[in-house]
Amino acid sequence: MIRDDLPRAAAERWPGRVRYTRPGGGAVAELDCDRDVLVEVCRWLLATPGLVFAGLVVEEGVHEWQLRYVVHGAADDGWVHVLTHAPLDD
């Protein structure tokens, strides 16, 4: 499972721009990220040894897109989902 210190460090590094949750207390840590720091957050995460990019999930909502960048830890270390939102017009 991804240790809590990594997603918490992201939230502290970008205060007010990255919010950390662990839905259900499971193996997935979620970072809800403002779009303007998304690339920086993903680069920072992927510079962490053992983390690799696993995919992108795009969901269309009523008023916005939700983009979920999926990062996986080596072995059974768990997952980090980096979420951001964009208006449907974008």
Blueprint of the fold:
Blueprint: H1 5-13, E1 18-21, E2 28-33, H2 38-46, E3 51-60, E4 64-73, E5 79-87
Parallel strand pairs: 2-5
Antiparallel strand pairs: 1-2, 3-4, 4-5
Protein model, in words:
With 90 residues, this protein is α+β, with helices and mostly antiparallel strands. The chain has a 5-stranded mixed β-sheet, covered by helices on one side. It is globular, with a radius of gyration of 13 Å. The N and C termini lie far apart (34 Å).
Task: Tell me how many strands there are.
Answer: 5
DSSP helix fraction: 10-25%
- From the alpha-carbon coordinates, what is the Rg to the nearest angstrom? 13 Å
pLDDT averaged residue by residue:
88
Give unreliable regions as ranges.
none
Structural class: alpha+beta
The general outline is globular
The rounded distance between the terminal residues' Cα atoms is: 34 Å
Q: How many H/I helices? A: 2
Largest sheet: 5 strands, mixed
Order of helices and strands: HEEHEEE
* Spatial arrangement of strands, main beta sheet: 1-2-5-4-3
The fraction of residues assigned to DSSP E strands is 35-45%
